[in-house]
Write a structure and sequence with these properties.
single chain; alpha+beta; Arc Repressor Mutant, subunit A; elongated; binds zinc ion
């Protein structure tokens, strides 16, 4: 019997709960078990096969395709982050830092005009920013660091200041 086997309910942090609800993911038994698995080891990444083995060891009956879909959905909604495992040529999943998750709810890059110092929020780039944040945090995680916040600010000249004087 595995010493990790437990029936205790998992305390899901608020930012994860928010992401699950925003994505419309129901908290099924499988979802709770997968979250519990990753919450129990916040710094370690798991491959799909490792997650499947760990869940099976905990007594959860889940097939590999269902688990694949669930891991993907959790990654898409920002609860998990995915990074490639170069040696095994597979995905490695780990918990996404809270701030990356919250970016989807309106945290967007800032643009500041250096002439008039007007600040604009670049809402169209929020998805790209989230992808960038995931990449940067994944790169840090591979080195063992834990990134918590990424700020993106662009400096330049706004359209009004660019127009030639009348
Ligand atoms: Zn300007």
């Amino acid at each position: 019997m595995s010493p990790r086997q437990t029936k205790e309910p998992v305390a899901v942090p608020p930012h994860i709960q928010t992401r699950l609800e925003a994505a419309g993911l129901r908290r099924t038994l499988a979802t709770r078990a997968v979250l519990g698995l990753f919450l129990a080891q916040p710094h370690g990444g798991l491959t799909h096969a490792q997650a499947l083995n760990a869940l099976t060891a905990r007594g959860l009956d889940i097939n590999r395709v269902t688990l694949y879909r669930l891991l993907d959905r959790l990654a898409v909604c920002g609860v998990l982050q995915r990074q490639t495992d170069d040696e095994a040529r597979t995905w490695r999943f780990s918990l996404a830092p809270p701030e990356v998750s919250s970016r989807a709810s309106g945290d967007v890059p800032l643009f500041e005009c250096e002439a008039c110092h007007r600040q604009l929020r670049v809402a169209d780039a929020s998805a790209a920013t989230q992808t960038l944040a995931q990449d940067v945090f994944s790169a840090l995680a591979r080195l063992g660091h834990q990134g918590t916040r990424l700020e993106v600010a662009v400096h330049g000249t706004c359209v009004d200041c660019l127009e030639p004087a009348a």
